[in-house]
Amino acid sequence: MSMHGPVATHRSATGVPTGRLAVWWLMASEIFIFGGLVACFILFKLNGTPGFEDASLTSLTAGAVNTFVLLTSSLSVVMAHAAIEKGDRDKSFLYIWYTIGGGFVFLGIKAYEYTGKIIHGHVITENLFWSFYYTMTGLHALHVIGGMVIMALISFDIRKGHNYQRVELIGIYWHFVDLIWIFLFPLLYIANF
Amino acid sequence: MSEAYAHPNYVKIWIWLLVLLGLSVSGPMLEIPTLTIITAFGIAVVKAFLVAANFMHLKFEKKIIWFLLIMCFCMLGVFFFGVAPDIMMTEGDQWIDCIADKSCVEQRL
Fold first, then answer.
1. Domain boundaries, chain B
2. S-S: A96 plus which of A126, A136, A155, B45, CB 3.0-4.6 Å?
3. Would you call A64 and B25 a contact, using CB atoms and an 8 Å cutoff?
4. What range does the domain containing A87 cover?
5. What is the ipTM of this complex?
């Protein structure tokens, strides 16, 4: 396997390769970013704050399809990891691009949803529910975009035979983005009462 | 690159995740709010565990990673219960609803 790149990428002081440990630290910080938002959302909802009944206006179908898309993209990125462990660069490259494709589908559905909501006057300043809705889903979408860009860069790198370990690292990140959505889905699309 | 371990059957896990997604979507159709919350969030926790354990390979990770994540959730719990009184308890001697009594408007003037 190829081990080009910074020493920290493959050095291990804790038993976990430092690159992977760094990704887990990043995930730890993300838990606070999204966890803080989710915690505040739940508290305001439990408190009966006006506006939260607007959750009934979100599209359960769009949310469910997007969950399906992200779960499937998670499968393809883990298959990319399994393929690169066997040294199959082409297969891994292909699976990474399936994942990026999933990201595009997710963003397309999200853009469709946003457009419909904005046309009907449900903008970020309407009430607290829509503030949370756009902040949480928007921040999540930014993470999706970031993951897609990094995955594209990694895909070309592994095709040249460099930095195979990065497929696992971006995989962990992408699964985490999926995990966030797994919790945003019931919060914003199902618990609408 | 990761250490050697047997990869789980990812397709099988994916199918389980889709079954759970189907259950969480069908929950609201019963129109029982309490049941909907239990199915939606309960299933979300199970789905999250399946993804973390198998796709993120958390079940193969060293204890330090588990420790790191558990500490994060504990701190998040502290945050939740620390902030909860501010949001949930708006009655009491020390609370002033300046919007209702318009005192914050007067202060600005």
1. 1-61, 62-109
2. A155
3. yes
4. 15-190
5. 0.88
